[in-house]
Amino acid sequence: MTETPHLARPLAGVRIVEISSFVAVPLAGMTLTQLGAEVTRVDPIGGAADYRRWPVTDGGDSIYWAGLNKGKRSTAADMRSPEGQELVQRLIAASGVLITNVAGRQWHSYDTLREMRPDLIHVEVSGRADGGTGVDYTVNAGVGFPMVTGPAELATPVNHVLPAWDVACGIYTALAVVTALRHRDATGEGQRISIPLENVALATAGNLGFFTEVMINGTARERIGNSVYGQYGQDFVSSDGVSFMVVALTGRHFGDLAELTGTAKAVAALADTLGADFTDEGQRYEHREALSGLFGEWFATHTADEIAAALATTSVLWERYRTFTETASAPKVTDNPLFSALDQPRIGSYLAPGLPIAFDGAYPRAVAAPALGDDTAGVLSDWLGLSGEQVDRLVQSGTVATGRAG
């Protein structure tokens, strides 16, 4: 499949410096890279806090780090020394764009760097709007979601394994850069942009009505296990022990589910008994336990293969629960053009996702991640015009490192 260059790489020609660790900003930098920008991630010599983060290979190389830094360039510098800081400042000024979650460093603050590059785009991700620190798991704890996650009878908080706020924050960061670039093209002005991780979580909770429900109705969301709030959705187990998630959002979905399970008459009788109108999605939700009792008998007497084959003939929304191992070998990965074979140095060969946005039907393909410092010499030469001798002197002085440092 051939990419259309001007569509698949809309940010071609844009250079960005990334100073980061963990998820949000690395994801933003990788997304911008996949859109065509040239992003160099600048790390301290020896690597930032996430350079060896789990999961790792048997040889100790971070699968995690490689996954979130695909396609970038890597520069390693002593960012504690005045010489290293000055060099990184020059790289930022040359690129005109900085994205970072290393907050509170005066030497790469907006005010300092703007003296070197008046039209600088400076995007800083912080933990909290008040300047406090925070990561996805602590932010999530303070918003409310862990208290409504898990089985209804559970009395303890449940953290989601997906770092949802980091992911959302990373996409917001990439969007902020794209809009700031457009603003700069139109006005010649840079921008200082702040994105507190906690605010991303709070905004999402507010937009989805979790806070408004309390403010307006005076009621708080309760744990409902795997049910779908306000709609009919429930998990069921087959006779051979396979779990399925089934969702009926519309009247047609619900009707098909009742017909499939042979419970249409029983559902009508239940509605009469309860005085309920199951054409109303809210009432289907309110009486979900009774309905699930009817539907569950059919699932419990059929195998997983029988259930999958039957559901596939209906409009009902469904999927069987799968492990990561099962999904990795399923056609949704192996036959998906989003994924392509990637030979990742230090890690191995595997199917890696590119950008999950298709341009004219083509997905930008994954590009291998560098090792720490792989591109130090190239970036200093390309961006700052330094000669090989000048780079060598910086390496010898310990200001920068090349190749696999640490």
From TrEMBL:
Keywords: Isomerase. The keyword Isomerase applies. Pfam families: CoA_transf_3. It comes from the Bacteria. The keyword Isomerase applies. This is 2-methylfumaryl-CoA isomerase. The lineage of its organism: Bacteria, Bacillati, Actinomycetota, Actinomycetes, Mycobacteriales. PANTHER family: ALPHA-METHYLACYL-COA RACEMASE, SUCCINYL-COA--D-CITRAMALATE COA-TRANSFERASE. GO terms for molecular function: isomerase activity. InterPro entries: CoA-transferase_III, CoA-Trfase_fam_III, CoA-Trfase_III_dom3_sf, CoA-Trfase_III_dom_1_sf.
